[in-house]
Amino acid sequence: AGVIGVDPSPQQIAFARQRHTAGLARFEQGDAMALPIGDASVDAATMALVIFFVPEPARGVAEMQRVVRPGGSISAYAWDYLDGGFPWEPVNAELRALGFAPTPPPSPEAGRLANMRELWEAAGLDAVETRVITVERSFPSFEELWATALLSPVTAAIFAAMDAPGLAGVKDRVRANVRFEGDTAVLSARANAVKGIVRA
After folding, report:
1. Cβ(195)–Cβ(119) under 8 Å?
2. How many CB atoms lie within 10 A of CB 111?
3. What is the sign of the dihedral through the CA atoms of 123, 125, 129 and 133?
4. 75: β partners
5. What is the pLDDT along the chain (200 residues), one digit of tens a residue?
């Protein structure tokens, strides 16, 4: 058994190689629309939170189909970015209200459930199934949630340019859209998933 990870970023590939030393996985720099993998050479392929970053999602699906053996599985899941499923939606909503709309990925519509099904069916895959995955992430306090949000360089730069009263107002409005369980701040998110089988 083995795993092949593909990413366009040499920095991501280097990081993955440093983290993984067991020898079961290899990591290759490459493009989702031109995978560096032989035809019909793997049992399964998946895009994890990737399909909306692919400029031509249908080409990405076709590439997964090319490298997977007949009877193998092709799947993907992606944040429901356009319909409020992104984990940091409370922060993004506030940025939009301030006129700082976050730059969307190249193909945000590819993350919608109906569009994912359409892509898989148009590729001629069998037994296409879709589902919604709901997840939660908990933070010990709102301050820790806020500090994590500021790990985004773009978000941090926007907030750093604000005066203290303006920033305090933003934090209060974000806090009002976060669920709390005692002191624990909870972010909910929603991803759409699809899978299909390569025809024999």
Report:
1. no
2. 26
3. negative
4. 46, 195
5. 889 999 999 999 999 999 887 788 999 999 999 999 999 999 999 999 999 999 999 999 999 999 999 999 999 999 998 898 999 999 999 988 988 877 888 999 999 999 999 999 999 999 999 999 999 999 999 999 999 999 988 889 998 899 999 999 999 999 999 999 999 999 999 999 999 999 98
Gap between the Cα atoms of 52 and 86, Å rounded: 12
Which 8-state DSSP code applies to residue 150?
T
pTM over 0.90: no
152, 155, 158, 160 alpha-carbon torsion, rounded to 10°: -60
Which own/partner pairs from 114-119 qualify as long-range (CB within 8 Å, at least 24 positions apart)? 116/51, 116/76, 116/78, 116/192, 116/193, 116/194, 117/194, 119/57, 119/58, 119/61, 119/194
Q: 1: which DSSP letter? A: -
102-147: per-residue pLDDT in tens?
Answer: 788 899 999 999 999 999 999 999 999 999 999 999 999 999 999 9
Q: Are 110 and 116 in contact (CB under 8 A)?
A: yes
Which amino acid, 33? M
**Alpha-carbon distance values, 58 to 107, 115, 122, 196 (Å):** 11, 11, 9, 14
